Each structure stands twice: as structure tokens, then as C-alpha cells.
């Protein structure tokens, strides 16, 4: 089941961890370079990863499988030349129970992405689809905008930003 309306604030997490060294293994903050494109502007879940460059084959394969409330983090090498997620793939993610997708790269089909009931964050939009020539890898540690992320970490995204932790943070909240 996707976590689509969580009771958390990345700012609250920032307050909680402000005394800790920035970008340490326990709590990390992604730079404010990502835009929200999906219908769900606030999402969280355990991380699964794929790494690919201008070929979304592993992204499509991952999001066509059951997500169980996870967040797919895509290391697209920050490329803005080809879109790694579009409307059809976003629909698959929503139907298969993914909480969100964070793409260190571009996406496309803006109008369709806005309707997809999943969180989607990416660097930018581009109209070009991928060039399926260099399939990537999955389930490995990645570096997103200088921040290390590994499968099994927890990612939280809302209007104020994206944070990553090596353990769930939402259990620490007084709700």
C-alpha cells in the first residue's frame, strides 16, 4: 500500500537532526534541485534503486513490479537529454503500489504525471524518450546529487525537500 498522505514534515526532521553533521550516514538532505511532478506531493517509503543513463529499461521493469509502498530512486546521471519516466511508467508505478519515484534526471508527459497517484520528483522535463541501448543496474548504492543512498534507506519527500535516513523516521513523530 502506497504512503500517499503521510503525517510528517521534512522540516521537523531537519529540526530533529540539526545538530548532527550534514550528510552523515544516519540523516541526509538532497539539494533543493528537484521539482514535484506527480499527484502526490508528499510521500515516503523504503528505498529501492536503479542506475541507468538515458535508457529507462530498469526503471520500467522496477515500476511494473509490486512496489509495496517503496520509493524508487533513479540515478540517471543527472542527464536532462532523455526522460527516464513518462506517463505510462508513472501509471504503472501508481497501479503497482509505489509510494514515489525520485529521478536524478528528466521526466516527460507533464499533464499525465500530474494525474498519476504517485509521488514523482525529478530535475526537469524534456520531450525526448530514452534510447534503449545501455540497460542499467538495480539494487545497488547510488550517489544522487552528491548524497549517498542505498537500498533499504528511507526517503521522505514533501514541499520543503527530500531527506534520506538509514532508518524509518516517521516512528519518531508525536502524532
TrEMBL record:
PANTHER family assigned to the protein according to its UniProt record, in alphabetical order: 4-HYDROXY-4-METHYL-2-OXOGLUTARATE ALDOLASE 3-RELATED
Does Transferase show up as a keyword for this record? no
The catalytic activity, as recorded, is: oxaloacetate + H(+) = pyruvate + CO2; 4-hydroxy-4-methyl-2-oxoglutarate = 2 pyruvate
Summarizing the function annotation, the protein's role is:
Catalyzes the aldol cleavage of 4-hydroxy-4-methyl-2-oxoglutarate (HMG) into 2 molecules of pyruvate. Also contains a secondary oxaloacetate (OAA) decarboxylase activity due to the common pyruvate enolate transition state formed following C-C bond cleavage in the retro-aldol and decarboxylation reactions.
Tell me what this protein is called: 4-hydroxy-4-methyl-2-oxoglutarate aldolase
Top-down, what is the taxonomic lineage of the species of origin? Bacteria, Pseudomonadati, Pseudomonadota, Betaproteobacteria, Burkholderiales
**Assembly and interaction partners:** Homotrimer.
Query: Which keywords, in A-to-Z order, does the entry hold?
Result: Lyase, Magnesium, Metal-binding
Q: Please give the SUPFAM superfamilies that the UniProt record associates with this protein.
A: RraA-like
Query: Which sites bind substrate?
Result: 86-89, 108
Q: What class of enzyme is it?
A: lyase
Instruction: Give the EC number.
Output: 4.1.1.112, 4.1.3.17
Note one Pfam family from the annotation. RraA-like
Q: Which family does it belong to?
A: Belongs to the class II aldolase/RraA-like family.
- Recorded GO terms, molecular function? 4-hydroxy-4-methyl-2-oxoglutarate aldolase activity; metal ion binding; oxaloacetate decarboxylase activity; ribonuclease inhibitor activity
Q: Where does this protein hold Mg(2+)?
A: 109
Cofactor(s) needed, names only, are: a divalent metal cation; Mg(2+)
Q: Give me any GO biological process, just one.
A: regulation of RNA metabolic process
